[in-house]
Design a protein that fits this description.
- The protein is built from 9 helices and 5 strands, in the order αααβααββααααββ.
- The chain has 202 residues and is of the alpha+beta class.
- The protein folds into 2 domains: 57 residues, no CATH class; 126 residues, no CATH class.
- It has a 5-stranded antiparallel β-sheet.
- Strand 2 and strand 3 form a beta hairpin.
- The protein is globular, with a radius of gyration of 17 Å.
C-alpha cells in the first residue's frame, strides 16, 4: 500500500481534501489528469491541498498507464482477462482454484470500473457483488497474490478490485452485505492513499 500523504492526522486531512473536491476532472490531450484540471473542477480546494492533489493525480495516471482499457472517467467492463491468468500460477496460491476463478470471473464480467482522478470506482451487479463478498471472505493475502500475477494484463474491473483487496480486511465483506439490501449490487469507491473505501447500494 502507498504511504499516506499530507500533514499530521493525514487521514483526516485527506478526508477534507476529498470532501472539497467532489467533482471529477477533465484529462489533457494525452489522457492524463493534472492538478490544475482538478482545481478547475473543484473551486473549494485550497492551496495547502496542492501536494496531496498532485500525488493523487499521479497515482491515477499510473493506474491508467498500467491497466489496459482504463480510460479516465469512462466505465470499462471486463474483457475476460481472468481467463488469461495461467491457471497453474493461480493453483499455487489458491486451494480451491475452480471456486476462486469462478468468483474472479464473475467480478470481472459483472463489474464496471471507472478510473477517476481520485481513484477507482467499481460498480458490481448483484451476482458480481456476491462473488466479491466470497473473495473477500477468503484469504486476502493469497487472493491479492493471485490477482497480482495478472497485473500487466488485468482488466479495469479487476484493477479496481485489486486496489480494494490491498487495503481492506475480510470485515469489509460484512459492510458490503449490509449495504446490498435491495439486491441490485453495490458501488465501491477507493480513493488513493485513503485507508477506507466507501460502499453504496446501486
Amino acid at each position: 500500500m502507498s504511504q499516506p500523504i499530507g500533514r499530521p492526522g493525514n487521514t483526516q486531512f485527506l478526508a477534507q481534501v476529498y470532501a472539497r473536491a467532489p467533482n471529477d476532472a477533465a484529462t489533457d490531450e494525452n489522457g492524463q489528469y493534472t492538478a490544475d484540471a482538478v482545481y478547475a473542477a473543484n473551486p473549494d480546494l485550497q492551496s495547502d491541498d496542492h501536494n496531496a492533489v498532485t500525488r493523487i493525480v499521479a497515482a491515477s495516471n499510473s493506474a491508467g498507464t498500467s491497466t489496459p482499457a482504463a480510460t479516465p472517467n469512462t466505465p470499462s467492463g471486463g474483457t475476460g482477462a481472468a481467463g488469461q491468468i495461467p491457471e497453474n500460477m493461480l493453483e499455487s496460491v489458491l486451494q480451491d482454484i475452480n471456486k476462486a476463478v469462478a468468483d474472479i470471473s464473475a467480478v470481472e464480467d459483472g463489474g464496471t470500473a471507472t478510473l477517476h482522478w481520485w481513484g477507482w470506482e467499481l460498480s458490481l451487479t448483484e451476482t458480481a457483488t456476491k462473488s466479491f463478498v466470497e473473495l473477500l471472505s477468503g484469504d486476502l493475502t493469497k487472493l491479492t497474490t493471485a490477482l497480482g500475477i495478472g497485473t500487466v494484463i488485468v482488466s479495469p474491473p479487476l484493477a479496481g478490485a485489486l486496489a480494494i483487496f490491498t487495503i481492506v480486511t475480510g470485515a469489509f465483506a460484512t459492510d458490503i452485505t449490509n449495504t446490498d439490501t435491495n439486491g441490485n449490487g453495490v458501488t465501491i469507491k477507493v480513493r488513493w492513499f485513503f485507508p477506507v473505501p466507501t460502499v453504496q447500494a446501486n
